[in-house]
Amino acid sequence: MLLTEYNEAEAMRLFELDGERRGRAEGEKKKTIEVAKSMYDDGLEPERIARILKLDIADVEVMLGLRKMA
Hints:
Layout: H1 8-41, H2 46-53, H3 57-63
Helix pairs in contact: 1-2, 2-3
């Protein structure tokens, strides 16, 4: 026997909140990639971009297409 009742409305609300959270995270990731590419196009070295954005150099190199994902 279940200890709690299933509440469909509450479950749907939680799914929507999770979707919104994931969407925001994906949007932030895309924006970070755009900023990194713009900085690189302006002549900044990947190491400096990594320091400014507080990211790992390997992640920045992947964003810029300089390295394949491991």
